């Protein structure tokens, strides 16, 4: 559910929504959502001074309901 919500949010921001891929990974450090986007969209997802990325992390943290979730942004 979190991966789908994050993918929906990111697809609304980028110019290449078909290139958005969100992977849900569990590790010993907790749950990680990896967001892969087209190289031209990476700056758009990060935003000025990281504001957009921070906002995405805040929203996903609220939806997670206290679960420790990390969001990583990666260009394809």
Automatic annotation (TrEMBL):
Keywords: Cytoplasm, RNA-binding
Transmembrane segments: none
Gene Ontology MF terms in the entry: RNA binding
PROSITE patterns on file: KH_TYPE_1
Record bears the keyword RNA-binding: yes
CDD domains attached to this UniProt entry: KH-II_YlqC-like (cd22533)
InterPro entries named in the record: KH_dom-like_a/b (IPR015946), KH_sf_prok-type (IPR009019), KhpA (IPR020627)
Gene3D superfamilies registered for this protein in UniProt: 3.30.300.20
Domain of life: Bacteria
Gene Ontology CC entries for this record: cytoplasm
UniProt subcellular location: Cytoplasm
Similarity annotation: Belongs to the KhpA RNA-binding protein family.
Protein name: RNA-binding protein KhpA
Originating organism: Brevibacterium rongguiense
The organism's taxonomic lineage, starting at the top: Bacteria, Bacillati, Actinomycetota, Actinomycetes, Micrococcales
Gene encoding the protein: khpA
């Amino acid at each position: 559910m979190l991966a789908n919500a994050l993918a929906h949010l990111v697809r609304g921001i980028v110019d290449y929504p078909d290139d958005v891929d969100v992977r849900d990974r569990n590790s010993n450090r907790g749950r990680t959502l990896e967001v892969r986007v087209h190289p031209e969209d990476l700056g758009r997802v990060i935003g000025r001074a990281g504001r957009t990325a921070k906002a995405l992390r805040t929203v996903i943290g609220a939806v997670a309901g206290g679960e420790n979730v990390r969001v990583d942004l990666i260009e394809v």
